[in-house]
């Protein structure tokens, strides 16, 4: 068991590793420099402006939080690797795992957040291009990826945004992580670094019901961390493509309402 004195040393070690590795991540941090053009202020644009103004900083913050979770998980795991046996398991479980769980699920949640925001902004802006436009967007809980594909038709920067967002939480990432987010929220929780996940699978067959018994190996954290950093970079790429799209939408609103 790790005593208080040793725990203080481990916290100091975590802080040392975190500070040593932080400079290499500075270029990945999104700075709060993304403000809408001041010209777009006509009354008709109120809904668009409120959504873009409020949601863009939230997208930026969530993307940065993704990086922080990965970095903290990596730093704590490096500390844990310096320990043996139960102490290593305990430190991973208490300090690295909470960040890992959040980070592995972040590509999914970020992707859906980008979809939600972008659908709303496109829907509001389509009034500029669509004769007899109607405010017929489904309820927020029914907004999805397929709807995004439909609402973005006709905007020049939309194709680049779609190309970027396809790469976030892609099939390869879900496969290599055992589809962790879905499994942990709907079936069973996979382990990190150490420990097996026992499973009992029920499968209907032509002759009746078959039961299978087995286990799933833990996720290899040393392999997982680089994958998470790669997913974070893709999230940054999505944000930059999103911002280009927002600027195109703002320019369209400007063109119609700036002088009114």
Structural features:
flat, 260 residues, 62% helix
Helical element count? Answer: 8
Helix-strand category:
mainly alpha
Cα-atom radius of gyration? 23 Å
Characterize the overall form: flat
Measure the end-to-end span.
70 Å
User: What string gives the helices and strands in order?
Assistant: HHHHHHHEEH
Strand order of the largest sheet: 1-2
Classify the helix fraction into a percent range. Answer: 55-70%
Oligomer: single chain
Counting structural domains, the number is 1
- Strand percentage, roughly? 5-15%
Q: Count of DSSP E strands?
A: 2
| Major β-sheet annotation | 2 strands, antiparallel
Low-confidence stretches: none
Explain this structure.
With 260 residues, the protein is mainly alpha-helical. It has one domain. Helix 2 packs antiparallel against helix 3 (85-125), helix 2 (46-80) runs antiparallel to helix 8 (221-257) and helix 3 runs parallel beside helix 4. The protein has 8 helices and 2 strands; from the N terminus they run αααααααββα. Strand 1 (197-205) and strand 2 form a beta hairpin. The model has no long low-confidence stretch (mean pLDDT 92). Strands 1-2 form a two-stranded antiparallel sheet. The radius of gyration is 23 Å and the shape is flat.
